[in-house]
Structures are given as C-alpha cells and as structure tokens.
Amino acid sequence: MNISLTTELEQFIQSQVATGKYASSEEVILAGIRLLEERERIYKGRFEELQREIMIGIEASERGEVVDGETVFRHISEKLQQRRQQAGE
After folding, report:
1. What are the pLDDT digits (tens) for 19-49?
2. Angle, CA of 46, 49 and 50, to the nearest 5°
3. Are 51 and 62 spatial neighbours (Cβ–Cβ below 8 Å)?
4. Alpha-carbon distances, residue 72 vs 2, 34, 40, 50, 86 (angstroms)
5. Dihedral sign computed on CA atoms, order 9, 13, 18, 21
6. What contacts 39, CB < 8 A, 6 or more positions away?
7. Which UniProt keywords are listed (predicted)?
8. Closest by alpha carbon to 31, among 41, 39, 22?
9. 22 contact partners, CB below 8 Å, separation of at least 6
10. What are the tens digits of pLDDT across the range 1-21?
11. Does residue 87 carry a pLDDT above 80?
12. Which residue did the predictor score with more confidence, 87 or 44?
C-alpha cells in the first residue's frame, strides 16, 4: 500500500521522530492508526449505549411514563445553575 501525505503531515511525522519518542516514521503512523482504532471502539461503544438508552426511553414512553418538555428543561437548567454555583465557590 502506498500512501501520499501532505507536506504538513510529513513534517509532523518527522518532528515526532526527531523528539526521540518514535524510532521511525512507520512507528508514528502505527501510533496514529492505533489511536484511530481506539477512538472507533469508544464511539461504537457509546453509540450502542445510546441505542440502549433510547430503547429504555421508548419503552417508558409506551408505558405512559413521560415528563413534559418544560419540566425536563427546567430541571436541567436548575442542575446547571447548581453546578455553576458550586464551581464558583
């Protein structure tokens, strides 16, 4: 596989090698790919978690366990205000 990089990316890779953190350009690229793999795993896990939470909400809604939007936003606003006050203390 051949990969073409922009001048900026080549310079970045070379600077990473120059710091001594990586022994070669290949190590820098492999580290970047590993980070991408990890990020994808995290996103996939979060996506699946959100799907489960949505299903819980749908099921609760079907049982009639709902709260009107104004109440929800008021509650969120109150929590946010409390956190701001705590952070300011």
Report:
1. 999 999 999 999 999 999 999 999 999 999 9
2. 90
3. no
4. 53, 40, 32, 19, 21
5. positive
6. none
7. Toxin-antitoxin system
8. 22
9. 16, 28, 31
10. 888 999 999 999 999 999 999
11. yes
12. 44
Burial 1-34 (b: 16+ CB within 10 A, else e): eeeeeeeeeeeebeebbeeeebeeeeebbeeeee
Residues in the chain: 89
Look up residue 58 and give its amino acid: I
Question: Is the pLDDT at 69 greater than 90, yes or no?
Answer: no
What are the structure tokens assigned to 69, written together?
């939007």
Secondary structure, 3-state, 5-70: CCHHHHHHHHHHHHCCCCCCHHHHHHHHHHHHHHHHHHHHHHHHHHHHHHHHHHHHHHCCCCCCHH
Which amino acid, one-letter code, is at 60?
A
Residue type, 49: E
pLDDT of residue 67: 84
